[in-house]
């Protein structure tokens, strides 16, 4: 059991920590102090490996191997659930966030067999960046102390920020290709399913101009399909879901 | 950035009036906060008094893009008056501590502009503190903001545990502002240089 004082101490140390090895050590220490056995602090998609992604994992080795061999990053139900909320959740309550498929259940059962018990995941969503999370897990059979969870949530958030700071090699306001204002407007409308003609009517510009903007935007991402263009621009934060669904 | 002190004075100025209108669009219409609306279009509450300081970011045409309200912690303010239980100890008060409230980004902004304007407002808040002998800001934030507030790179710490009600999760926090804050914001790519335009001095 820890208290707010220990959380504040953790924040102070995490804010000035120098490298990821030291952070991994700090995480191991606080994980034990909070009564957990395992910890995982990760970005969920690794577009540019080794340069800008957060990755500190202390899970049962057997599970880590299986997880990597089967590339479960995208389909992991816990990661998927963490995209549905900002607030930390216990793994035992994951069904309140997403519907579990048979495949999901088998992943969770395998994790359990590999020695992972109940856990608590703190999602980390920052606009314009890849989603990540910080998870703490018990050994199988151990009981999660519910009273501790608000503290765990704070630790998870500060830990993620510390890791994010360390992994930031060169701060750039826009990491992927940048779209011009007009291109971004067109892509937001593409994401709404509008045709080039419809976009030209909405923006009051020529259809040829729209075609050119969308083509230029596709070129910047190196993609040929409109769907992929919209998804990449959403992923990068060049457009947001609010731009697509209306605010 | 544009600065005004006192709600009555702010209401005499078109830019600051549009801030109160935008606050209604954001906090009442979008976020459904239960706060008073004046004349059907301005969100103005009991803390919008003559001691409140308003910081506004405007575009080239002088339209409101983003704003925040700073409340002295020596008087009534949100954390000290409404949510003291969010602090494990007594809420911080003092002449060198202001509370950031009503952090507001215009709804019409698109994703990228929002981040840019947000960065300008955060930089303006730091500039204001450095220029007015303010050592720290306190604030009450909804949890969905918290990771973003940390990501600015400034020295931010929790004053208590996150507390959930049925509809939302709140946290009290304190941000220390000092000589290294600019560098911290620069390192995280947030820092933007913002010019100062004080309504009182311009008038």
TrEMBL record, chain A:
<keyword id="KW-0805">Transcription regulation</keyword>
<dbReference type="InterPro" id="IPR000792">
    <property type="entry name" value="Tscrpt_reg_LuxR_C"/>
</dbReference>
<dbReference type="InterPro" id="IPR016032">
    <property type="entry name" value="Sig_transdc_resp-reg_C-effctor"/>
</dbReference>
<dbReference type="Pfam" id="PF00196">
    <property type="entry name" value="GerE"/>
</dbReference>
<dbReference type="GO" id="GO:0003677">
    <property type="term" value="F:DNA binding"/>
</dbReference>
<dbReference type="GO" id="GO:0006355">
    <property type="term" value="P:regulation of DNA-templated transcription"/>
</dbReference>
<dbReference type="Pfam" id="PF03472">
    <property type="entry name" value="Autoind_bind"/>
</dbReference>
<keyword id="KW-0238">DNA-binding</keyword>
<protein>
    <submittedName>
        <fullName>LuxR family transcriptional regulator</fullName>
    </submittedName>
</protein>
<feature type="domain" description="HTH luxR-type">
    <location>
        <begin position="172"/>
        <end position="237"/>
    </location>
</feature>
<dbReference type="InterPro" id="IPR036388">
    <property type="entry name" value="WH-like_DNA-bd_sf"/>
</dbReference>
<dbReference type="InterPro" id="IPR005143">
    <property type="entry name" value="TF_LuxR_autoind-bd_dom"/>
</dbReference>
<dbReference type="InterPro" id="IPR036693">
    <property type="entry name" value="TF_LuxR_autoind-bd_dom_sf"/>
</dbReference>
<keyword id="KW-0804">Transcription</keyword>
Automatic annotation (TrEMBL), chain B:
<keyword id="KW-0673">Quorum sensing</keyword>
<dbReference type="InterPro" id="IPR001690">
    <property type="entry name" value="Autoind_synthase"/>
</dbReference>
<dbReference type="GO" id="GO:0009372">
    <property type="term" value="P:quorum sensing"/>
</dbReference>
<dbReference type="InterPro" id="IPR016181">
    <property type="entry name" value="Acyl_CoA_acyltransferase"/>
</dbReference>
<dbReference type="Pfam" id="PF00765">
    <property type="entry name" value="Autoind_synth"/>
</dbReference>
<dbReference type="GO" id="GO:0061579">
    <property type="term" value="F:N-acyl homoserine lactone synthase activity"/>
</dbReference>
<dbReference type="GO" id="GO:0007165">
    <property type="term" value="P:signal transduction"/>
</dbReference>
<keyword id="KW-0808">Transferase</keyword>
<keyword id="KW-0012">Acyltransferase</keyword>
<protein>
    <recommendedName>
        <fullName>Acyl-homoserine-lactone synthase</fullName>
        <ecNumber>2.3.1.184</ecNumber>
    </recommendedName>
</protein>
<keyword id="KW-0071">Autoinducer synthesis</keyword>
<keyword id="KW-0949">S-adenosyl-L-methionine</keyword>
<comment type="similarity">
    <text>Belongs to the autoinducer synthase family.</text>
</comment>
């Amino acid at each position: 059991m820890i208290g707010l004082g220990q959380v504040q101490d953790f924040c102070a140390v995490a804010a000035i920590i120098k490298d990821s090895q030291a952070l991994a050590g700090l995480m191991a220490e606080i994980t034990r102090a909070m009564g957990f056995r395992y910890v995982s602090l990760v970005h969920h998609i690794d577009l540019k490996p080794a340069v800008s992604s957060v990755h500190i994992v202390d899970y049962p080795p057997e599970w880590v191997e299986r997880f990597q061999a089967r590339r479960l990053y995208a389909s992991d139900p816990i990661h998927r659930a963490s995209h549905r909320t900002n607030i930390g959740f216990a793994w035992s309550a994951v069904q309140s966030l997403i519907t579990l498929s048979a495949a999901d259940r088998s992943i969770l059962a395998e994790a359990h067999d590999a020695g992972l018990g109940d856990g608590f995941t703190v999602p980390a969503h920052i606009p314009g960046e890849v989603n990540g999370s910080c998870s703490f897990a018990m050994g199988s059979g151990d009981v999660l102390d519910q009273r501790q969870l608000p503290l765990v949530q704070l630790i998870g958030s500060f830990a993620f920020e510390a890791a994010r700071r360390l992994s930031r090699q060169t701060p750039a306001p826009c990491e992927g290709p940048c779209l011009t204002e007009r291109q971004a407007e067109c892509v937001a409308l593409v994401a709404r399913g509008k045709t080039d003609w419809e976009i030209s009517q909405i923006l009051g510009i020529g259809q040829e101009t729209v075609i050119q903007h969308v083509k230029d935007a596709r070129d910047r991402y190196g993609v040929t399909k409109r769907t992929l263009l919209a998804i990449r621009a959403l992923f990068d934060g060049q457009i947001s879901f609010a731009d697509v669904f209306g605010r | 950035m544009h600065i005004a002190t006192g709600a009555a004075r702010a209401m005499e100025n078109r830019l600051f009036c549009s801030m109160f209108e935008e606050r209604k669009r954001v906090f009442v219409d979008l976020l459904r906060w239960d706060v008073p609306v004046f004349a059907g279009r301005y969100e103005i509450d009991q803390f919008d008094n003559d001691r409140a300081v308003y910081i506004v970011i405007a575009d080239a045409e002088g339209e409101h893009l983003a704003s925040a309200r700073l409340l002295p912690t020596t008087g009534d303010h949100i954390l000290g008056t409404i949510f003291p239980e969010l602090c494990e100890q007594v809420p911080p008060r003092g002449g060198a501590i202001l509370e950031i409230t009503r952090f507001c980004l215009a709804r019409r902004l698109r994703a990228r502009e929002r981040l840019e304007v947000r960065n300008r407002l955060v930089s303006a808040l730091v500039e204001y503190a450095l220029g007015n002998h303010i050592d720290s800001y306190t604030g009450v934030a909804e949890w969905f903001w918290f990771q973003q507030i940390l990501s600015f790179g400034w020295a931010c710490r929790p004053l208590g545990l996150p507390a959930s009600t049925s509809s939302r999760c709140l946290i009290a926090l304190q941000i220390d502002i000092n000589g290294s804050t600019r560098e911290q914001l620069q390192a995280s790519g947030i820092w933007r240089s913002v010019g100062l335009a004080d309504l009182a001095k311009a008038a």
